Amino acid sequence: MNAYVGAEKLPVAGDPEREELLRVDNVSLSFGGVKAITDISFDILKGEIRAIIGPNGAGKTSMLNVINGFYHPQEGTITWQGKVRRKMKPYEAASQGIARTFQNVALFKGMTTLDNIMSGRSLKMHKNFFWQLLWRGPAEREEIEHRRKVEDIIDFLEIQAIRKTPVGRLPYGLQKRVELGRALAMEPDLLLLDEPMAGMNLEEKEDMSRFIIDVNQEFGTTIALIEHDMGVVMDLSDRVVVLDYGKKIADGPPEEVQASQAVIDAYLGVSH
Amino acid sequence: MAGLAGAASSGGDTFPKILLHNADVFGTRTAFREKDFGIWQSWTWSEVLNEIRTFSLGLADLGLQKGDKVAIVGSNRPRLYWSMVAVQALGGVPVPVYADSVAEEMAYVLGHAEVRFAVVEDQEQVDKLLSMKEQVTSLEQVVYDEARGLRSYDHTCLHSFETVQQLGRKNLEAKPDLAEAWSEGFSGQTGADVAVMLYTSGTTGRPKGVMLSFDNLVISARNGNAFDNLDQTEEVLAYLPMAWIGDHVFSLAQAFTAGYCVNCPESMDTIDVDRLEIAPTYFFAPPRVFENMLTAIMVKMEDAGKLKRKMFDFFMGVARRAGEKILNGEQVPLSDRLLYGLGEFFVYGPLKNRMGLTRLKVGYTAGEAIGPEIFRFYRSLGLNLKQLYGQTEASVYITLQPDGEIFGDTVGKPAPDVELKIADSGEVMYRSPGVFVGYFKNDEATRSTKTEDGWVHTGDAGIIAENGHLKIIDRAKDVGKLADGSLFAPKYIENKLKFFPNIKEVVAFGDGRDMVGVFINIDLTSVGSWAERNNVNYASYQELAAHPDVYKMIEGHVDQVNRDLSGEPMMAGAQVRRFLVLHKELDADDGELTRTQKVRRSFIAERYAPLIEALYDGSKGKHIKTEVTFEDGRIGSIEATVEIRDMPLYEAASGMEEAAE
């Protein structure tokens, strides 16, 4: 895919200069009798693109939900930016600097692209109800500032033409891009992408890949993504974690993971 | 050369000199705007001078020298326009290149032009240039405007626009008299120096580099400004390829000489909105743009409420009756004038606003023939839309339609300072101050195009009508003769058919044969919506194209064209005897059209040889299998039995005949 010509990646694994952003230690999560995740440990380094892959039902999305604090694991610890995380309320989870997109698009369909991305800024708006009501003055200035940031993102994602279009009227590929825009509007430290390319055609995939690389390089955002398209995963990510039946079966650079017998078995299916 | 003295007297004879003049005279007027981050960012003439000067000094620091060629690649951005003047100020020659041309073609142009520098828009273009490093060995430095995605690139020969400007600024701070020296540097340039090199997208053979001098551009631009009374208050939208002479003249030469404002859209997809916000006063568009705008309006009107539709239909009727006459300053009954006034309030005004043409002073269309219906629609709304005929080699202007003398089938009278004649072969020739210097490194082509005494072969066949207006028939090399000796101008017939909205493409055959036969492509949007309204079921283009009712409809159109042709003494012999509707859409991916959507006649003749044979052997139908390339590059094939229809011919009207409407 020549969309990535020139995007030479710097080696990440084992790079001592990169500090640890998130660390998952011996985490297990179960819903009643169903064990979604069993004793998983890995880390995400600052500035890398980390892929989480695995067959259907391997526990990938659960893992993301654990990372962003939506689920709290029964066992194990999560260390976020050097601090061990306790159980959080949803709004605390949202304000800790982790943004995400969803497997199926979760936008406000009736709102325009611009408004949807603006909504990503709401946690960063600090003027209180009174000022918002008064509008003129501080609240207006604040909104202008946020709008500028949002316009940056619109420019970055090349969606100027649909700025004022209700997202419900957009094709799927563009909706995904708007969703990415909303996540970026939060200026996250860690961006979680749940199957960013699901249901896309080749061209849309190439576009999205380029955006992901650019986000990573231009903004320095750390990215963890779940993806089924192996070509995309191998091209994009610095390191890959492979899950199967809630267990980690491999972890390392893409080439290494690709060659691992356990991974091949998991994907092709062998009897357990 | 007439007009030369005038060009030198006001503002200077080269663009860098004119820039100094403009910064002086129009200092605080807006010169450029670009929509970025959702807002129109603007630069005044004095700011533009500053930007160009710092960039130019930066380029000098990087080693740009007199005579160096600099490629300019990208979409319409103020910085790219500035780059051209910055290069000219150092005695270099900018070479704008079509940004969407494939790498191979671009490599040829850059290699042929021997560019040393390139100023490009973004990563896409940088990648393209880097990939052709081996073919274009002369290329040394690349400057880009948009930094995105380029962070990890090797920056030894790669610079951002800002860093080059910073370089210039730093030098300027260190040596304050550098600004003076900079202006001094180009004060010695004259109008005869080469200003720019534009490559023509040769439909045959390799592209040729047309060298245009400052005189060519400056005098042509001033003449154009004078012809339509354009001054510093105009607003234009720069959205056509920068490598195309039209854009170069409208968005640079005329803008600099008149001092008006050039607006660069946010992106290619937002042009409609951007035009609405800017409301240009001077607007140029190929017929396709006007067609699309009209189609969009008509589609929206179909969905409008009953009352609105009634109102629209009524007032459009009034406009058809009186609009053009009012625009031309002719006599119109008072009742119509009053109704037209009402219509302006209820329909025409809002419509023009929607299209962003409210403030339009003059609009031009050129490049191809425009459908008379479409042309009349815009004119009846009170928009002063006109046609012009031009060429890169002429610095655009050859003929223009003067205000009030608008005829749908002609392209107007010779532009100021232009002499026009028709050669014995029927080819249109002209001589003007805008005539190019020559083709770069191609004296042979220069000699065969430009005669010793400055006449240029246009390559188009035409006639000068009794009213002094030029009428273009076809490409001179395409014009042929039927076996009985009557004139056969394929394009002329094709265009007549293409003016029907239901017909998208036409290929006419007949040179050296005993009759005219045509291939027709239906327009899927238009015929599709007709099918929807008339309960015609179809699953594919192929099925719709072969539908008997569609054939009947197309037959009606062909019949109409034959009737028209019979009314024109020169063309009456070339009526369409047989036609067929092709089973697939002609497609650039299959090589049947050029990338600019022009029919490649010889290629099609080869590819569909069995069908042509069937056209001429009298058979009623023919089975054919055609290979097609899908968008993802896979190759498949489609098969069909194509029906061929015979058409009745009309008696040629003799003697004086009114021009067919």
From TrEMBL, chain A:
InterPro entries xref list: AAA+_ATPase, ABC_AA/LPS_Transport, ABC_transporter-like_ATP-bd, BCA_ABC_TP_C, P-loop_NTPase
Protein origin, superkingdom: Bacteria
Molecular functions (GO terms): ATP binding; ATP hydrolysis activity
Stretches assigned to the ABC transporter domain: 22-270
Gene3D superfamilies the record matches: P-loop containing nucleotide triphosphate hydrolases (3.40.50.300)
A GO cellular component entry from the record: plasma membrane
Keyword Phosphoprotein: no
Keyword set, alphabetical order: ATP-binding, Nucleotide-binding, Transport
PANTHER family xref list: ABC TRANSPORTER ATP-BINDING PROTEIN (PTHR45772:SF1), CONSERVED COMPONENT OF ABC TRANSPORTER FOR NATURAL AMINO ACIDS-RELATED (PTHR45772)
This protein's name: Amino acid/amide ABC transporter ATP-binding protein 1 (HAAT family)
UniProtKB/TrEMBL annotation, chain B:
KW Ligase (keyword) present: yes
InterPro entries membership: AMP-binding_CS, AMP-dep_synth/lig_dom, ANL_N_sf
Coiled-coil boundaries: none
Cellular component terms (Gene Ontology): membrane
Pfam families (UniProt xref): AMP-binding, AMP-binding_C_3
Domain of life: Bacteria
Single annotated GO MF: long-chain fatty acid-CoA ligase activity
Boundaries of every AMP-dependent synthetase/ligase domain copy: 21-440
Keywords: Fatty acid metabolism, Ligase, Lipid metabolism
PANTHER family: AMP-DEPENDENT SYNTHETASE_LIGASE DOMAIN-CONTAINING PROTEIN, LONG-CHAIN-FATTY-ACID--COA LIGASE
Name of the protein this chain belongs to: Long-chain acyl-CoA synthetase
